[in-house]
Amino acid sequence: MATATAPRADARWSAALEEHQVALAAYLDAGQTVSDAAWTQPWAPGKWSPAQITEHLAMVYRVFITEMTEGVGMRMKLTPFRRGVLRTLMLPHMLFHRTFPKAAPAPREVRPVAENLPSRTAALADLRALGERFEHELSVARASGRPGLTHPFFGVIDWNRGVRLAAVHLEHHTRQIASLARR
């Protein structure tokens, strides 16, 4: 029986990684289409600029890489019961519908500042490298038998759903910056 489940688990893992790779590539492509003038302007009133969004995504990768390599992740925001409820009810909804709740707050650890952000070229290159390292560290951590990634609102989520959530997060922000390319 173990031999039958291992190929399915490997196939699901490969599909989740591919989903992330496609989402990262789409974000990087969308980032290239944003004009230099629009790069530092909010994508909508009261929202982050593409530069800030890209920094936010880089910060998320750095936090998760640190968790996987050093064991220190983001601080939990809710009680274990509330995290369990969100993990059971909201996370599957987000993964199925490929959306994030409107006005969902970013944890403090991954909120970008407005000053001293890198150029578009440097930011996108950094994000690409971090995304690739994130995938590598995921594979290493998954193979080590650890249970999954720690999310501040969901608690520990298994590797497949963790990488899929990262893909949905990228898609969420891709839609935001892609709206600037049409202007």
TrEMBL record:
It comes from the Bacteria. It holds the Pfam family DinB_2. Residues 25-177 form the DinB-like domain. InterPro entries: DinB-like (IPR024775), DinB/YfiT-like (IPR034660). This is DinB-like domain-containing protein. The lineage of its organism: Bacteria, Pseudomonadati, Gemmatimonadota, Longimicrobiia, Longimicrobiales.
